[in-house]
Amino acid sequence: MKDLNRYRNIGIFAHVDAGKTTTTERILKLTGKIHKIGEVHDGAATTDFMDQEQERGITIQSAATSCFWKDHQFNIIDTPGHVDFTIEVYRSLKVLDGGVGVFCGSGGVEPQSETNWRYANESKVARIIYVNKLDRTGADFYSVVDQVENILAAKPLVMVLPIGIENDFVGVVDLLTEKAWVWDDSGEPMNYEISDIPDDMKEKAAEYREALIETAVEANDDMMEKYLEGEELSIDEIKACIRKGTRDLMFFPTYCGSSFKNKGVQLVLDAVVDYLPSPTEVKPQPEVDLEGNETGEYAIVDPDNPFRALAFKIMDDRFGALTFTRIYSGQIKKGDTILNTATGKTERVGRMVEMHADSREEIDTAQAGDIIAIVGMKNVQTGHTLCDPKQPATLEPMVFPDPVISIAISPKNKGGNEKMGMALSKMVQEDPSFQVETDQESGETIIKGMGELHLDIKVDILKRTHGVEVEVGKPQVAYRESITKVIDDSYTHKKQSGGSGQYGKIDYTIEPGEPGSGFTFESKVTGGNVPREYWPAVNKGFASSIEEGPLASFPCVDLKVTLKDGGFHPVDSSAIAFEIAAKAAYRQSMPKAGPQILEPIMKVDVFTPEDHVGDVIGDLNRRRGMIGEQMSTPMGVRLKAQVPLSEMFGYIGDLRTMTSGRGQFSMEFDHYAACPRNVAEDVIKEAKERQGALA
């Protein structure tokens, strides 16, 4: 039986270009998993194994790999930094016990690091902080520590101080042991010496060490008392305090280094062992019933408990579908039959593998705490619970955001439809934030995603991985419709044509719902004028109609319908008659209820050099943007704004032109808001023209 206390399931997450993947490469080299280091900028990193990742130098899929450090097994997931792929970060955090947040020494806390930090807070994942790239021009460790405090509202616990900076960065001072780690210029991670703290840093190191101990003892009352009484604490006692405080999210041990130059990574690995929790030390996963309500039961991390696991990622490769699975309790063996509670179907476990990026190691058994991949599962999707068929249970599922942008695609070759369909269904399984649907009227295939880059990559994967060349239409914004007035109305559905007829009368109120409430239905009928068995039919009639709003056939949101009264016929009334009445009532009343078009508003975070701020703000204003805050950073200015998605197409090109190629931005969906009248008119006109062309 494996010792779960020696497991660490960790994720490495950060903004684009902070050096996550390079850091993962260094960890794999130090732990003996790889012998030659692959570089991201050469397109040779171990965990970036997709063509698209190697070309663009960004991580798209979260890659899983296992390695060992000081008798501890690390299951590491290297997650993407780009905002269009935050879904990968979110689902990885869901199954991890701890994380390493990597920040760029010169860029500091960048837009995506903020989003990832928020996700990690929501998932209550303990983290350590690693400030990377201290060898870069403009790097400033202390400034990044300030930003973590001020921008992320987090408490960094500084564990090391840098020796030198930029080109002169040679190593770090370990504040706990009061020793200096200094590397030579060979770039070899093992070529270092441990010596005394340089004289010019002794005062600063003593000041920071005192602050470290004062913060650490807050996690343990007994130690605090001992410290306040003037007793010297041992290193092990301080470490125990830091471990508890890190686990309780009171503070985040903060390290620094240069992964590219192989300086400082060992201390981060030691910190993972010393301070991040093992699977048995995190709060167990709650179990839920079929409606998603918590049952009060938990999947306790214990190999002897019933089997409980969560499928958090599906990946298709040349050997078949791989289902990445985090086992929370119990054990699983080759040949076992397991139940998928989402589908109610059982499947037999054929092969199980431990992943090392895109290579694998066959295993026969796995247990609570493991992250493994099961080969060839048929009907499993991301977020499904796998469990013991004799003792079924469902774990808290994952919630994924709705896509905000869509494009129409069609195969260039006439015969490519079937091939494209098969490829798309595999891609949807792999990525829950990617959706595909067929337009009923035009027969066009519509793909939907989280941003332009997201869909760009999907089209690229279709072409290269699946060999399907496609024509791509213009991006379409996912508009919605809602209403602004309360309408009391009545509708009677009557049909008599020999034999039994149809009859259903409803009196109802249609009113705007709370923002984000979707569709709600309520019946206030008393006295049996509409018998109770027909209420679900009325609900179904309205609910199925909201897919098409009255203005431009966009889905209607935030709508409340109350059934107040009505009438029925003892012979001619039926559920279908009341459903038809509700559908007709919707068409009759919605145009009178002050309908309006809603557009997705994006949270946009722009970085620009100081001398281009005016141009960037002027441009965002022209795009109907509302500028929020402005923050000066050592490298330039960060602007936060809210801008309609429809105005943001092609923005990256314009931003680069304005800022001589130095600007960056990230964008994520924030909320829906009413369109200004002139914009709404154009949207309606365009939608009608499109429908006319299809007709």
What keyword list fits this structure?
16 helices; globular; single chain; eight-stranded antiparallel β-sheet; alpha+beta; 695 residues; seven-stranded mixed β-sheet; 38 strands; 33% strand
In spatial order, strands of the major sheet run 18-17-23-14-15-22-19-20
- Estimated structural class: alpha+beta
Roughly what fraction of the amino acids lie in strands? Answer: 25-35%
How far apart the termini lie comes to 66 Å
Q: Give the biggest beta sheet.
A: 8 strands, antiparallel
Q: In DSSP terms, counting alpha (H) and pi (I) runs of 4 or more, how many helices?
A: 16
Helix content: 25-40%
The radius of gyration over CA amounts to: 29 Å
Structure notes:
With 695 residues, the chain is α+β, with helices and mostly antiparallel strands. It is 27% helix and 33% strand. The protein has 16 helices and 38 strands. The strands form eight sheets. An eight-stranded antiparallel β-sheet has the order 18-17-23-14-15-22-19-20. Strands 2-3-1-4-5-11-6 form a seven-stranded mixed β-sheet, sandwiched between helices. Strand 12 (285-288) and strand 13 (294-299) form a beta hairpin. The radius of gyration is 29 Å and the shape is globular. The termini are far apart.
